[in-house]
Amino acid sequence: MISNIFEFLKFKDRKVASTVCWSWYNASIQPRFLKKVVICLKGINKMYDVLNIYTKSLLPFFAFRILEIGIEDLGNAECSTNQNCWDWVYTIWPLLAPKVIYLEFIESIELRDDILPALLNVTQQLKGLKIRDVGYCRGKILYEVNRIQSLEELELQYTPALDVDDKTKMLGIIPKTLRKLCVKSVPKECEFVINDLINVIKFCSSHLKSVELFEVGQIYEIMESMVNLNMNLKKFGLHMVDHMDCDRAPEIILLLLKTQWPLVDLKLCAYSFTYDHVFAITNTFKDLEKLSVSGLSERAFETMAGIDGSSFEALSRLTNSISSLTKLKSLYIGIER
Q1: What predicted TM-score, i.e. pTM, was given to this entire model?
Q2: Per the database record, which ranges form the F-box domain (predicted)?
Q3: Is pLDDT above 60 for 163?
């Protein structure tokens, strides 16, 4: 009964109510109330003591966001390499790992080469993994990570300083059943990473439901490799900033149209699009519920808004095509917000 009442409470109110008694606490930690609860861990010196508290927790699972590892200790040159700073990885973390289902690293500065493999190799119940600034994790770290069979969502954001010869490899950790993949900030010069990404998409093609590529080079080659895959994508995002990819936007759109994916959520961004692009998209993907097509310049917006030479007929045709999307709930066309 009390758990049904908790459904109507906000998180902060449930948290207060959970302190009344053990019965109410147990009700408050049911999985349905913890789906959006992420525990933030910041710094490194007190990590052991903080995590030790959670080893005694009755929570059925944990979602951790690890922030700024090493930042507090940048003044101490020995901290990032001192074994004592990382004792928690080999002592406390293995006790928590079986209950960790979500893990996110943000600004993981000076993450020693062996740390990420040590964390992930014992965290085999992970469903979601996000790593930002992958380039700061020195060495071929992902080569040393075992495949995480339970992984459903993966997001990797590479550092702008990514070495073009970087051999970081995703495929080794990803199971065939991956459902969501998001990759950000991979320059076209990093051919090894891009080829690895293509192999990942092929490997997981039968299970992937969502693919998002933001500021990833060689988009045409990636799209070309996806056209003939038997994919059932529901969500697709493409953010093109490389001039070569933007120049080939019409060809990339044509490849997208050939896929015939059952998309319900589509987000595209490049320097410019035309009415014909948007018309073709709305005329092909009839199940769309969310559509965003944005340009990176005012010129792109002017073209799409019907100014500067765009014909009334083109605008009318596009309007009718959009109106035919009976499931559409969200629409944005214009300059990137």
Answers
A1: 0.81
A2: 2-35
A3: no
The CB-based long-range contact list for 158-162 (8 Å cut-off, 24+ gap) reads: 158/133, 158/134, 158/183, 158/184, 158/185, 158/186, 158/190, 158/193, 159/133, 159/134, 159/135, 159/185, 160/135, 160/185, 161/135, 162/134, 162/135, 162/186, 162/187, 162/190, 162/193
Distance from C-alpha of 156 to C-alpha of 177, rounded to nearest angstrom? 17
- pLDDT for 78: 47
d(CA 122, CA 226): 33
The two counts, helices (H) then strands (E), for the chain are: 14, 11
Q: Which residue has the higher pLDDT, 110 or 285?
A: 285
Angle at 167 between CA 162 and CA 169, to 5 degrees: 105
Name 319's Cβ contacts closer than 8 Å, sequence gap at least 6.
Answer: none
Instruction: Tell me if 24 sits within 8 A of 32, measured CB to CB.
Output: no
Flag whether pLDDT at 34 surpasses 70.
no
Give the position of tokens 């927790």: 57
94: buried, middle or exposed (CB in 10 Å: 19+, 13-18, 0-12)? middle
Q: How many CB atoms lie within 10 A of CB 37?
A: 15
Per-residue model confidence (pLDDT) at position 59: 77
User: According to CATH, what is the number of the domain 38-69+84-208?
Assistant: 3.80.10
- The rounded distance, in Å, linking the Cα atoms of 186 and 183 is 8
Contact in structure between 258 and 285 (CB atoms under 8 Å): no
> So where are the chain's domains?
1-33, 38-69+84-208, 214-336
Can you point out the beta strands (E) in 133-234?
153-157, 180-186, 210-216
HSE-CB of 208 using CA atoms within 13 angstroms = 23
- How wide is the angle at C-alpha 16 spanned by C-alphas 12 and 21, nearest 5°? 145
